[in-house]
Amino acid sequence: MKYKTFETERLLLRPVGFDDAEFIFELMTSEKWIKFIGDRKIKTVDDAHNYIKVKMMPQLIKLGYGNYAVVRKEDNVCLGTVGLYDREGLEGVDIGFAFLNRFEKQGYASEASVRLMQAAKEDFGLNHIKGITIEANLPSQKLLEKLGLKFVKMIRLEGDPEELMLFEKRD
Known about the structure:
- The protein is an alpha+beta fold.
- It is 33% helix and 28% strand.
């Protein structure tokens, strides 16, 4: 099945696939991923491949959207991910993003997230988007606010060790 991809001036957003296992391994084992998102027990590239198969692909197949690799057009380098998630324990769809440290503070997360918010509404008919982050992740909070989401309350998802800040935007 062919899934939608999206573009900005500098970026291509395409669904994460099995060919991205090495990149997903690097991203999910990065210090910031583990600190701000959590350890997903990814220890090898094979673990990353299996994570794509078990955690990422089913939602893409079921809903037509999910995790998108953010690829810089000029050199085809994967910078990070953005996604629309139908997360267990959270009613509705939330937007999430994570970038390799060397690609932060260059506007990529904002550019990709703004485009995915547009796609959420125009391509997938989603008029209510949520976002979650831990209190310590100030850059994530700032980006959620830039996307028009407002802090609502603190929540706890099953299996998550810390409380999360819940943000929402309704159109």
